[in-house]
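Whiteboard transcription, Tuesday session. T.W. wrote the structure tokens on the left side:
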């Protein structure tokens, strides 16, 4: 709250109660995720072993968005835009994803895991720069060319 001096005692109590409820909800989610993942984390036969290990390793980061409203529940711009009710944003996102899908289907994909990683990295960079409104060619040059001295 920007102006705590103007807040009434009841408003402050409500804010604190909400924050405490968010912290408690996060604690419960952390416990539940750990309880669900633990039986599989060390079982070499479990197909979900790697996922369970990752959940346990990154547990402290999984549910931050529950207790801190400033943290989005995801970090995927395209996913967030798809969930948007703005039809223009939805069309724009589909248009930006579509060329990558078409190129992959026409070319049959890449011939190696390194080629796939390179294509995904380039697509991610170009998509991020585009979403930020940066000029693509200038951004590529800035990334690839050494900085000029004074």
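and on the right, the sequence the group agreed on:
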């Amino acid at each position: 709250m920007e102006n705590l001096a103007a807040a009434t005692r009841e408003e402050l109590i409500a804010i604190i109660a909400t924050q405490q409820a968010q912290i408690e909800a996060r604690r419960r989610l952390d416990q539940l995720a750990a309880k669900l993942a633990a039986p599989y984390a060390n079982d070499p036969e479990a197909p979900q072993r790697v996922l369970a290990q990752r959940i346990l390793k990154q547990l402290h980061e999984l549910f931050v968005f529950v207790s801190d409203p400033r943290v989005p529940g995801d970090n995927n711009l395209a996913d967030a835009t798809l969930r948007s009710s703005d039809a223009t944003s939805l069309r724009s996102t589909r248009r930006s994803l579509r060329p990558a899908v078409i190129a992959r289907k026409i070319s049959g994909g890449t011939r190696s895991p390194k080629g796939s990683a390179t294509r995904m990295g380039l697509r991610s960079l170009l998509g991020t720069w585009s979403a930020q409104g940066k000029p693509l060619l200038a951004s590529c040059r800035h990334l690839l060319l050494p900085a000029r001295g004074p």
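Someone added at the bottom: Residues 78-83 have pLDDT under 50 and may be disordered.
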